[in-house]
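Technical note accompanying the year-one report. For the benefit of new consortium partners, we illustrate the data format agreed upon in the data management plan: each record pairs a sequence with a structure-token string. No post-processing was applied to the example shown here.
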Amino acid sequence: MTEQPPTTAKADSIPFIQIQGVTKRFDGAPVVDNVSLNIHKGELFAILGGSGSGKTTLLRMMAGFETPNTGRIIIDNSDMTDVPPYERPVNMMFQSYAVFPHMTVENNVAYGLKKEGLPKTEVAVRVDEMLALVQLTEYRARKPHQLSGGQLQRVALARALIKRPKVLLLDEPLAALDKRLREHTQFELMDIQEELGVTFVVVTHDQEEAMTLATRIAVMHEGRFVQIGTPTEIYEYPCNKFVAEFFGTTNMFKGVVQEINDLDVLIDTEACGVIPSLGIPELSVGDDIWVAVRPEKIAISKTSQDGPYCIKGAVWDLGYYGNHSIYRVKTSNETIIQVNAQNQARLSERAVDWEDEVYLSWDPASSIILRS
């Protein structure tokens, strides 16, 4: 039987944030539909979903900008369901950053403390600390239009954190950054969160961003949580076809269970013939299922491979990305299988090229069985 994912850590501790049966309707239609979720203190938690999944509405309810129709939101053992935003131990960093264009970096960061009427000396000390934390000390006198996208993102983060909230909510915090800067800023966010120990809840539609940032992820679809777990749990052990396809790239084959034995399960697929796989509990001969195989789990070679499974095809499409290549291989029955291969050797010519005849193989344990 398939190895089960490990149990998520902190399962026995008291949740710092508790979302209990929360529903939000707009014009009678549920946008968030009776969801429950526990988030622990110090977690960097991601809510991942496509457009219209309800993730931002849920974040706004946590911030107090929307009120649930039913259910409760509890933060640090206090019911916050009907508490206004300005009385919650929560701050929110918006996708647009929403910095004041007429203020300097220093005044943007200090704004919240000044509104609270804190002494000038305390404001100055905390602003200095926060600017140093986000590496903006030398930019303190600049206006927003004089900053790069990454620097603006750090100004918004500093302004949100300087009031020392118990929870920081981030709505698509890296969406406005280019790919290289986004990857760099992900690690900056993680370092800052670990140093401060503040609980972060990040909403994103970017699977790679969620996997890099989060200790745990909730995949959201049509107002509900489909699966909650660590990035590894969700990627390697998706609970259904939707999660497998949404969370990363995968090859999906429809099949029927042909045989079950002590070592593995044989699945008859129209696309690839009989595929061996490890089983799942309560699987029976004749069951209609899907088999998912991640592209990086598949080996590609010009020579036939020994092992329990090998399929022949020809390279139909090829994409070279420097550190890796993506091959789209067409089999004899017109099925397209995607393969991701690391370019480990420094070669002037590809080992596998357009229209080459190739053989694909993978370990049975890499086949993920999903019920129809």
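Partners are asked to follow this layout when depositing records. The helical segments are 55-63, 105-115, 120-133, 149-161, 179-196, 207-213, 231-236, 241-246.
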